[in-house]
Amino acid sequence: MVVVSSREFRANQRKYFDLARTNDVVITSRAFGNYRLVPLKEEDMLIDETKLDAKIRQGIEDYATGKVHRMKEDESIAEYLERMITEE
Q1: CA–CA dist 21, 16 (Å, integer)
Q2: pLDDT value at residue 88
Q3: Is there a contact between 28 and 49 (Cβ–Cβ < 8 Å)?
Q4: 2 with 25: CB under 8 angstroms?
Q5: Would you list the DSSP string of the chain?
Q6: Beta strands across the sheet bearing 33-37
Q7: Strand 2-5 vs strand 33-37: parallel, antiparallel, or unpaired?
Q8: pLDDT tens for residues 23-39?
């Protein structure tokens, strides 16, 4: 783990961004606390609160209007997923 002050981080950002690929980098600040620098991976999903709220509201509306996929009693997960894909 590498611990660095916010001043040192600002002065050498490129160095610490590169270092964060293989090490934990902690940035300390008296005024704002401590932060850990973590590189994002392709599978990491970022979504803003407005878009998330809209997706949740749409899901609730879809459920209320019956726009849902229900698994049949004797259906396997693979069969259920295949049916979902083909019904759309």
Answers
A1: 9
A2: 64
A3: no
A4: yes
A5: -EEEEHHHHHHTHHHHHHHHTTS-EEEEETTTEEEEE-PPPTT-----HHHHHHHHHHHHHHHHTT------TT--HHHHHHHHHHH-
A6: 2-5, 25-29, 33-37
A7: unpaired
A8: 999 999 999 999 999 99
